Amino acid sequence: MTRHAPDAMAKTPLYALETHAEFIGRHIGPRKEDVQYMLEKVGAASLDELAAGTLPPDIQDDTPLDLPRALNEAETLQVLREIADRNQLRHNMIGLGYHETITPTVILRNVLENPGWYTAYTPYQAEISQGRLEALLNYQHMVCDLTGMELANASLLDEATAAAEAMAQLKRINRRSKSDRFVVDAACLPQTIDVLRVRAQYFGFELAVGDPVEELAKGDCFGVLLQYPGADGEVRELGPVIEQAHEAGALVAVAADLLSLVLLQPPGEAGADIVVGSSQRFGVPMGFGGPHAAFYAVRDDYKRTMPGRVIGVSVDRHGRPALRMALQTREQHIRRDKATSNICTAQALLAVMAGMYGVYHGPRGLWKIASRVHRLTCLLAEGLKAMGVNVEQAAWFDTLTLHVGAEAAARIVSTADQAGINLHHVPGQGAISISVSEKTTREHIATLWSIIGEGDAPDLEALDTKLGDAYSAIPAGLQRQSDYLQHEVFNRYHSETEMLRYLKRLENRDLSLAHAMIPLGSCTMKLNATTEMIPVTWPEFGDIHPFAPAGQVQGYRQLIHELEEMLVACTGYDAVSLQPNAGSQGEYAGLLAVRAYHASIGEPDRDICLIPSSAHGTNPASAAMAGMKIVVVACDDAGNVDVDDLREKASKHADRLGALMITYPSTHGVYEERVREICDIVHEFGGQVYLDGANLNALVGLAAPGKFGADVSHLNLHKTFCIPHGGGGPGIGPLCVREHLAPFMPGHPLVDMGGDHAGNHAVAAAPWGSAGILPISWAYITMMGRMGMRLATQVAILNANYIAKRLDGAYGVLYTGRNGRVAHECIIDLRPFKQSCEITEEDVAKRLIDYGFHAPTMSFPVPGTLMIEPTESESLAEIDRFCDAMLAIREEIAAIERGDVDQENNALRNAPHNARDLIPEWTHGYPAESALYPAPGLWHGKFWPAVSRVDNVHGDRNLVCACPPPEAWLDFEED
């Protein structure tokens, strides 16, 4: 350690002592001396020289990013506090799918604020993901119980997009109907209807919005969407409408309020085919619109076409219960443009929270919460009736709509605002709606009586007594009769002590960034700094309704505007939309903008999308959703786009060329030399260039896609800009466009977003998508500043090239670019080992678990390979530890190749090993120590996988996607 003498320290200038840019050094993993050592190893004199010799010269841009100087962590939190204080807290009774909720503090602290949960990656390696897999299985089980359906997925992005996915699935599975007409209940949430409109447009569906009974009578349709209860609060009987639809050859999806299903007849019991909705009010803050986990449940007959991820029960190689992702796991990579959906992510962290809310409260607790909400709504209604106000609804759960006239509605909403309550002013109807939530109090009810009614308000206690215990606004025939949440997991952890231990037990089964680097290529897992995370749970950000009046959300508006400007500076584009709440949605929104642009200049038939064969699977899936026809462009042996093939196909389809989708740096981890030429070719033949920004972390500060030829990109804030993966979500996929595409970005039906795109259809439920986590990326860019952002890119390139250099020779590095360099990731080839000794990429991935690592990306984009991405936030020591593990594994493979170790019974084929392998005795033909402690450092803190290698085939053949009976886990728990 370097020591500074007192006299040397005394000569240090004040500015240097203040360390304004200290966060840069906290975020960047390698120290200055480490960087120099690594540069020597890769053969570069400086980071600038390394970048200059790696990126194509014609795209390099040394212009400093238009970002302010970096702030330190304390300064950043102070500025964010000032921004947050510009948001005004109200008691929100707006409803429309968003409700105030109480996050149990044991869940707040131990899940949402816990890096052991929020820095875990998507559970592609099931053996080190058993904790969140169990939490998500709980969520699926809860959703099935409450909806009355047979199977649920592990969440989708939000209620509106879940409804759009349901519409698409109903079309796929309905073999009886040839119709393209889809009926939508006019009582559906307005944002849902808006998202459906744009989705239907490019699917070629006719959307019929109105009274579902009347619309069914007008003609054939393939499906119907009902809202339960309706947006106006009315609880309508589902059974007759569903029966009418089925008799007419249509299938039915129901968008339901999850809390209401504690008291209402489940849609599954009424015959629904699909049930969707939001689990937000199960303990997840509103966050100005997200992130929230949408639920999606289907009849068992339709499980094979259900979108999203499904958690299933299987066994490990010892026959013990083990969980895994089942069914549609990353199906986009297999089915491409024939995929059932472009969704490749979920809202895992939020689904975990919602599921744990159900676990903590249990059936009795949920019944009390739902019953109190309903009771307060009944008291509000009966009190208003006593004061002469007409309540039109015959049945309700938590929402009342009052038609009071335009003048009175405006007065009531304004007066309520002054009293600290937000109500919904129903557009164009002279009506207000009021939604009661878990946080609504008796005082709120009394305040509303005084604002809305005339004369003396009733005494609440006396009115409550008068109504009696049996009073309900839910008709007897629609009241829930069936049991729910009877499984032990929902009836055991109701004290905080037990809940805390359960959460910790599950956390301990998961490997996260709190344990080790997660070197997944294409899916950057970098530091999610504590300072970035802290503001997320401030009430001034978390407790804001997405449809709150603009005057109350000036802090959010400032944050959003500043983040948009930051992203413009980082990308070279002209405008940004933060609405898409996943990368897949950003792709979709970008292609919609391209299609709308072509239509605006009189060329609506430009529907051909060129996509390289190496592209991420969501690219063709998104293009298909946008109504485009995919033409595949070949790649050469070096992994680059075959420019001659591109020109030939662009010329062939010149009259209909709409877009090229390209990822840069490429999916193969190299900077393609001719990217400018590729863009020029597409423009020459009338197309637009969509550049997938998934790998922007290899460009920021060095090159800007908006300046070297691209027209539109989506970004992954959950990758380049540090939003954590949360065990499989949340994510944000902003849309960045050049000026000519700006008028075609998403709008919103309920909120004036500003700009000439404000009147456009939405692609997500909330105006700014998952706004609640935007402070993370804002804080990251603010603390890095213009120099830090560039340095992060350079070090990411350095770390990847250092790994490639260390592993080269032991493994083949599959693709390189200029001067033999890789970009931010490298692909190593394991296919020779399959031929030499029957060792596969899966064997290597599982063996890495024994060394304490999450495996790199397996078999993408090339089968039989591992794609490694270290990111800039991993230290030299951790990178060397990973490289040492990979080199040790190569020696283990060599021993098998030489015949020194049995080809079937070896440490790789049996990996990962856990403590159960020692009971009753070690039976393998190799030492236990080498299997369990293959590296010296592991003695100081080994991560033990909860299960041995999971049997995926067994799980597919014996599909179980709900919590097994408790006795199934007895052996497992004893481990």
Description:
Helix content is 38%, strand content 11%. It has 33 helices and 25 strands. Helix 4 (32-42) crosses helix 27 (774-807), helix 23 crosses helix 24 and helix 25 (643-652) packs parallel to helix 26 (675-684).
Blueprint of the fold:
Elements: H1 6-10, H2 14-18, H3 22-27, H4 32-42, H5 47-52, H6 73-84, E1 91-92, H7 105-112, H8 115-118, H9 130-147, E2 151-152, H10 159-173, E3 181-185, H11 190-203, E4 206-210, H12 212-218, E5 223-228, H13 239-247, E6 251-256, E7 274-278, E8 294-298, E9 310-315, E10 321-326, H14 332-335, H15 348-386, E11 399-403, H16 406-418, E12 421-422, E13 424-426, E14 431-435, H17 442-452, H18 460-467, H19 496-507, H20 530-533, H21 539-542, H22 554-571, E15 575-577, H23 583-600, E16 608-612, H24 618-625, E17 629-633, H25 643-652, E18 657-663, H26 675-684, E19 688-692, E20 712-714, E21 735-737, H27 774-807, E22 812-813, E23 826-829, H28 831-837, H29 841-850, E24 857-858, E25 865-868, H30 876-898, H31 928-932, H32 952-957, H33 970-974
Parallel strand pairs: 1-12, 3-4, 3-5, 5-6, 6-7, 16-17, 16-18, 18-19
Antiparallel strand pairs: 2-8, 7-8, 9-10, 11-14, 13-14, 15-21, 20-21, 22-23, 23-25, 24-25
